[in-house]
Write a structure and sequence with these properties.
15 helices; 8-stranded mixed β-sheet; 382 residues; TIM Barrel; 2 domains; homodimer; alpha/beta; Urease, subunit C, domain 1; 8-stranded parallel β-sheet
Chain lengths: 382, 382
Amino acid sequence: MISTLITGIGELTTNDPELGRLTDAALVFTDGRVEWVGPASSAPVADSRIDVEGRAVLPGWVDSHTHLLFAGDRTTEFEARMAGRPYTAGGIAVTVNATRAASDADIADNLRRHVAEAVAQGTTTLETKTGYGLTVEDELRSARIAAQHVDEVTFLGAHLVPPGADPDTYVALATGPMLDAVAPHVRWADVFCEQGAFDEDQSRAVLEAARAKGLGLRVHGNQLGEGPGVRLAVELGAASVDHCTYLSAADVDALANSSTVATLLPACDLSTRQSLPPARRLLDAGVTVALASNCNPGSSYTTSMAYCITTAVLQMRMTIEEAVTAATLNGAKALRRSDVGHLSPGARADIHVLDAPSTTHLAYRPGVPLTHAVWRAGVRQR
Amino acid sequence: MISTLITGIGELTTNDPELGRLTDAALVFTDGRVEWVGPASSAPVADSRIDVEGRAVLPGWVDSHTHLLFAGDRTTEFEARMAGRPYTAGGIAVTVNATRAASDADIADNLRRHVAEAVAQGTTTLETKTGYGLTVEDELRSARIAAQHVDEVTFLGAHLVPPGADPDTYVALATGPMLDAVAPHVRWADVFCEQGAFDEDQSRAVLEAARAKGLGLRVHGNQLGEGPGVRLAVELGAASVDHCTYLSAADVDALANSSTVATLLPACDLSTRQSLPPARRLLDAGVTVALASNCNPGSSYTTSMAYCITTAVLQMRMTIEEAVTAATLNGAKALRRSDVGHLSPGARADIHVLDAPSTTHLAYRPGVPLTHAVWRAGVRQR
């Protein structure tokens, strides 16, 4: 039980309702947990001591939406899209083919590489989804590999009806034998409820079957246009509905009166040349808003939570504080985790030190890599 | 004269009209200059050999517009702007006060820190401007310090009429004794031709006086609305007119029929919540378009050329090739430099290796730090 004192913190974002944001602060962690937080002048003695010389410290990012069980890339599709071809859900099939053809080792290596890239930029909790297998064996393989490397794993058998398959037959598989096989390895289930993927009835069937198996629910909804995703997520008590790019007034009301988090994925919207999501409408209505990367090789190939925050502030009119909360505490809420996303005593010691005096610099200095140091559960990552 | 072979280049962007873009390529540099470029299979023997294992290689960024002679920061102004206060030229005075109060050593340290940050992200040629001194002594000091640390220095005495000063008296100073003092230390002169800064007559006086002293001309124009900046820049044969956010049809025509480069500063437009500049209109009309960071503590506090490129592709509909050319070769054109911005034999060995197989990843992977290695004039920087 070696204790570490981080002192000289210029600005400490705790996300703790009592502690708030401190200046000239210090923090002690022991055995992977935060032990003490307060003014630098009254910090206790610890076994080791690190002076961060006025830098800002905040909880590590909680990236609550990624798709990292894949092989191959989609540079060509991206280039075509930038040349004017619209984004559709169908491109997923390209990654499905590449993923099925890859070895376990290749999929695990690719996952590890992307997780390491994210951690080096300050991400300390990461959710990832299956969904590029779409057979019982391939989905099971993805879930098993994911469980070895990330905090939270989501079954997304209902990502796309595999090309050539009958939709009803596929939904029966994804709610039957595939779900049975994968459920023991995951905490969450998700469905891509969108034109070209799964309609309302199919999405409901997927979510209800998963809930009956004891899985928590997440929904991809309202990405490419208004649709039933948000409504369904709220009705079924999903932890989060992700994308929320196109929302009706009724969708915003439903979210405001629910415990479902609206997770916005602005890097995806920019990478697919959609509108940016209506963050201000959601926040002003009292909805809990999270930000996530949606890292995947098709529609949003980034691990950069800082890019999401910069975009949210400069282009979606979120305040810095709202954006940082969305990428930490509210990401944790979207995963129904109370141990991460904040730096209260007892929280996991997931600590992000910026090469800047305040979190404002995440938007004030767009694109500049600002991660100075990262600890995850008290273990130095960078 | 030690020669170095870089081999295993997955994609080599030379910006050479004959060589173009090569795959499976190699490059040799000797004594700070590119000596040979061609297929990896026919590379000559060299004294040392580096295998970049399929990565993309391109010329280092040419950042043709920064303001790095400053002290202090403007976090508070940025936060107020994000809360809805509009951007005006007046904030410059805050930095003028901080800069005048700083020691030579503090100004030089701050400059070095920002140059190092830029170089670590792949920038190998950097222009910077005076303009936070606005007295003879302070402008001269800035120019002297800049000349020790960057490739290209611009006199921007006409950045703002200092608060309390009489505009005509100040223009007389900036075109007289101040210009006389600074001119021996700089290659360029610039004027902020904008509402709240200098009007058309004042701008013309500044530029004509500088030209008479043998300085090359640059203009800040059309940032906050349509105005005379572009027209004046073209008429007086300026190397570049920078910002170009609001352009009339006549402005675009004038640029298309000139050798004046239109330098776009998208990080500034986003940081001040302006529109993004009409890159497609300019490119489709045949204008030479450059991209630059405009790094300064008020309106665009970034050194990230990658962020500018990402924004240009995702949001301004430039192609990757157009954006990369704009940030390398056309940045060099905006500085009338033929030795940088390309990797033809004889060019300065300014080499940027990406942690990616192609330059497409600069937009495909928004926000992910992709700089793997950097050489400037053949000297490894990172």
